[in-house]
Write a structure and sequence with these properties.
single chain
């Protein structure tokens, strides 16, 4: 597997994780922008 394939897979996985974070944020009814941003940041930063 070459470098290009690894980069494409990494980008796909990161987009998938970002979409999951957005869906989780949208599922909360009364979460404001600040709470949604904090939840998205903490869930994504823990994956690095």
């Amino acid at each position: 597997m070459g470098l290009i394939e690894l980069i494409v897979i990494a980008m796909g996985l990161s987009m998938d994780a970002f979409a999951v974070s957005i869906c989780i944020g949208l599922s909360h009814e009364k979460a404001g922008f600040g709470k949604s941003l904090t939840a998205g940041y903490t869930s994504e930063s823990s994956r690095c």
